[in-house]
């Protein structure tokens, strides 16, 4: 089986050693203001705050070959005429050695060609809006090296959709020119009615041997990213500006002459600010190669400190590296970017209301300030009647678009705020004033309560929350039954009211406590009635025509995973031990040994098997795929039932590294260091293929599942609770956990294999 790389735990890195991965394997760079993603071939995209109206560079999503363009560095050997990239593409010139190291906040390339070694690191420091590229060139050969290093960055026109629809006009409303006094290229963007017109500078630590500001001048009519005309033998960079518009780029050439054994360090800097004086000051701060190297080092220091707040040792290296590095890093990226942009997402929707709320829940445990910042932005988008929008951009009071109502939007708020208060101990947060979207006043407490009442006040004739467009499962929208009733949301409401009651009691709100008790009692009774309980599991959806989804009477969609796990999480399944019975059915009918399917059997036609297919093919995504996000709740449910062995199995079998190795990276395709949204299920010939990576709620809930339930080190309103549920295979586990200003060293001993009864010290 072909492999493409390996983990290097000492540097918290994934090292890619073969550049032609099945898909782009990316990393995210950024500081909550300036962002980028970059692949193992340096393909990628740069944007400021959000990529809809502040997209700085271009990335072609559907072109062939893909993953073009990006943050390119060309090495031109003036003796031989060879042109190569330390990141292999786009020239695809064979290299003697190649490595791409993705680590939190930094991607670093190291390559060798004909005795010339090049190391090229990219990163965005925590405090400044600069993209830094640090290059070290070393001549390991026996003869002098005569090289030209050429950097390439292709600019867009910031407004993604507007550029796509009106580039023929917008191309005339900006200019680029080289400023010799500053030693940088100025991108002067003055598009009419643009919401954002930043000052942008692109420069180098060394004197340039040439530059270009026009893509046509560099690529040429017969050239390509792989073979730019300006780098062909006998041709030099023309030092052309682009004062009146066109296809913009920044090309910087630096001549490097190295004796045998000598090396040279070079820094490339992109700086962005609101005005030219600020941009110039920022550029000068990072002008030298040493300053660029220092900026890269500051990124590493930032992430070492951030990820060091909690560390775990279970004796399983595959689990430990995910829990210590890649899950929390994935959590931070997901909260920062929601589902906005990747090599799959094109960056048009902003922060999704319910996704951002869930993402903040896990991040509250290691970055509570950031989690609270995001929740303030979420609450500011809530309507006075308690409803939530689909998605929003933080600096824009309007939702990104009119989208059908997701009935579960506001149920997640209490989960996150309860965990945030448990982490910080700051109950006063509930009284913080955050206006609703129309400007009317409200506290955090008000936002949560109105959100719950918004759901409870919109119920169907059988007493469960109305589906409207869909609940957590977007696939339910295919049935087109807005008056259907959601069993899953009913269970979530029981759990939400249990948590909210906890806060209401501490705030001396007896009326709200009574309201919660009433909701819990009423919904629990309905959810355990014959309308919902199917005999071995809980049904999924009550349709308005009297039929149900998730029933043993159904030919397709007979059992769904989420209502079994949430029956346990909510406590609804405590009645007659039904939660345990339901999870046994899920294990028998849904487990694939690389994750539990979201439902079985999948739909061939909607609503009946004889009807035409609609939506995803069988085994894909919500139609019987292995939906990673849904697996997290099954893990939590098994822990609550005391089944440590099964919880560990479910956690481990869906780890990206495990799935990639099981099916082979060429079939799985996705990065082995971050979660995918889903995996193609076993009824499909593509079984084992990974879906959208990075931007999924999976990482956040996996953090909760492992830290709060398997290891059982859980923040509560009263302090840190230790209640693990370990498998037989883990006899001793250790957890270092910073909590409310103190660091705890915890040892969990499971020498008798009790699973749910573990000694701690």
Annotate the secondary structure layout.
Blueprint: E1 5-8, E2 13-16, E3 26-30, E4 34-39, E5 44-48, E6 55-57, E7 72-77, E8 83-84, E9 97-103, E10 106-113, E11 116-123, E12 130-139, E13 145-158, H1 160-170, E14 174-179, E15 184-189, E16 199-204, E17 210-214, H2 215-219, E18 248-258, E19 263-273, H3 276-285, H4 289-307, E20 310-313, H5 317-337, E21 351-352, H6 353-363, H7 368-379, E22 391-392, H8 412-424, H9 444-456, E23 485-486, H10 487-506, H11 510-527, E24 541-542, E25 548-549, E26 559-560, H12 562-570, H13 578-590, E27 599-600, E28 626-627, H14 628-640, H15 644-653, H16 656-663, H17 665-668, E29 678-679, H18 698-710, E30 713-716, E31 719-722, E32 732-739, E33 742-749, E34 759-760
Antiparallel strand pairs: 1-2, 2-9, 3-4, 4-5, 6-13, 7-8, 7-13, 9-10, 10-11, 11-12, 12-19, 13-18, 14-15, 15-16, 16-19, 17-18, 20-32, 21-22, 23-24, 24-25, 26-27, 28-29, 30-31, 32-33, 33-34
Q: Describe it for me?
A:
The protein has 761 residues and is of the alpha+beta class. It has a domain at 22-306: Distorted Sandwich (Beta-galactosidase, Chain A, domain 5), CATH 2.70.98.40. It is built from 18 helices and 34 strands. A ten-stranded antiparallel beta sheet has the order 1-2-9-10-11-12-19-16-15-14. A hairpin with a 4-residue loop joins strand 14 and strand 15 (184-189). Helix 8 (412-424) packs parallel to helix 10, helix 12 (562-570) packs parallel to helix 14 (628-640) and helix 15 (644-653) packs antiparallel against helix 18 (698-710). The radius of gyration is 27 Å and the shape is globular. The two termini are 44 Å apart.
């Amino acid at each position: 089986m072909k492999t493409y790389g390996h983990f290097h735990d000492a540097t918290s890195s994934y090292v890619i050693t073969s550049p032609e991965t099945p898909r782009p394997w990316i990393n995210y760079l950024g500081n909550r203001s300036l962002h980028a993603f970059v692949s193992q071939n340096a393909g990628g995209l740069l944007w400021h705050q959000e990529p809809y109206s502040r997209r700085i560079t271009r990335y072609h999503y559907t072109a062939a070959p893909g993953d073009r363009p990006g943050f390119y560095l060309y090495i031109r050997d003036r003796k031989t005429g060879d042109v190569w990239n330390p990141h292999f593409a786009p020239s695809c010139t064979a290299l003697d050695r190649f490595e791409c190291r993705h680590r939190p906040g930094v991607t670093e390339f190291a390559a060798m060609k004909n005795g010339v070694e090049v190391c090229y690191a990219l990163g965005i420091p925590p405090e400044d809006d600069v993209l830094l590229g640090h290059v070290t060139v070393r001549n390991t050969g026996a003869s002098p090296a005569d090289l030209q290093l050429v950097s390439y960055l292709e600019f867009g026109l910031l407004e993604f959709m507007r550029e796509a629809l009106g580039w023929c006009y917008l191309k005339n409303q900006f200019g680029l020119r080289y400023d010799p006094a500053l030693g940088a290229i100025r991108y002067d963007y003055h598009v009419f009615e643009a919401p954002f017109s930043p000052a942008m500078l692109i420069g180098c630590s060394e004197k340039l041997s040439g530059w270009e500001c026009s893509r046509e001048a560099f690529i040429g009519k017969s050239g390509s990213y792989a073979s730019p005309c300006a780098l062909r033998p006998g041709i030099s960079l023309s030092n052309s500006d682009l004062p009146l518009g066109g296809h913009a780029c920044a090309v910087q050439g630096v001549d490097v002459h190295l004796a045998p054994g000598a090396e040279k360090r070079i820094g490339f800097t992109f700086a962005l600010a609101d005005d030219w004086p600020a941009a110039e000051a920022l550029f000068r701060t990072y002008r030298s190669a040493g300053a660029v190297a220092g900026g890269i080092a500051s990124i590493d220091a930032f992430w070492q400190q951030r990820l060091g707040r909690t560390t775990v040792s279970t004796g399983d290296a595959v689990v430990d590296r995910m829990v210590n590095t890649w899950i929390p890093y994935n959590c931070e990226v997901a909260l920062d970017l929601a589902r906005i942009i990747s090599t799959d997402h094109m960056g048009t929707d902003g922060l999704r209301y319910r996704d951002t709320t869930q993402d903040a829940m896990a991040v509250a445990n290691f970055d509570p300030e950031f989690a609270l910042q995001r929740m303030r932005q979420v609450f500011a988008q809530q309507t006075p009647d308690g409803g939530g929008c689909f998605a929003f951009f933080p600096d824009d009071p309007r939702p990104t678009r009119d989208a059908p109502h997701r009935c579960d939007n506001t149920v997640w708020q209490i989960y996150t705020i309860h965990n945030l208060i448990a982490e910080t101990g700051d109950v006063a947060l509930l009284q913080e004033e955050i206006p609703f979207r129309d400007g009317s006043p409200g506290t955090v407490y008000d936002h949560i309560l109105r959100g719950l009442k918004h759901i409870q006040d919109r119920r169907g004739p059988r007493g469960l929350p109305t589906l409207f467009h869909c609940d957590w499962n977007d696939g339910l929208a295919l049935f087109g039954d807005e008056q259907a009733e959601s069993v899953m949301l009913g269970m979530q409401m029981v759990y939400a009211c249990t948590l909210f009651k906890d806060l209401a009691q501490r705030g001396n709100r007896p009326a709200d406590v009574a309201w919660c008790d009433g909701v819990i009692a009423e919904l629990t009774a309905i959810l355990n009635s014959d309308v919902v309980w199917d005999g071995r599991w809980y049904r999924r959806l009550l349709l308005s025509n009297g039929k149900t989804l998730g029933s043993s009477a159904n030919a397709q969609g007979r059992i769904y995973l989420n209502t079994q796990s949430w029956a346990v999480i909510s406590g609804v399944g405590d009645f007659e031990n039904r939660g345990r019975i339901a999870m046994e059915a899920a294990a028998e009918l849904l487990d694939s040994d690389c994750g539990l399917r979201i439902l079985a059997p999948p739909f061939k036609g909607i609503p009946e098997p004889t009807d035409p297919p609609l939506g995803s093919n069988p085994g894909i995504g919500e139609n019987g795929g292995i939906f990673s996000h849904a697996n997290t709740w099954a893990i939590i449910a098994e822990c609550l039932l005391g089944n440590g062995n099964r919880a560990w199995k479910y956690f481990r079998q869906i780890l990206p590294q495990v799935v990639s190795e099981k099916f082979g990276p060429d079939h799985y395709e996705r990065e082995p260091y971050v979660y995918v949204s889903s995996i193609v299920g076993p009824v499909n010939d593509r079984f084992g293929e990974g879906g959208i990576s990075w931007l999924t709620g999976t990482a956040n809930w996996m953090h909760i599942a492992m830290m709060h339930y398997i290891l059982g080190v859980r923040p509560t309103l009263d302090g840190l609770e230790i209640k693990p549920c370990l498998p037989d295979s883990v006899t001793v586990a250790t957890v270092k956990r910073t909590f409310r200003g103190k660091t705890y060293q915890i040892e969990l001993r499971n020498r008798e294999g009790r699973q749910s009864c573990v000694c701690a010290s």
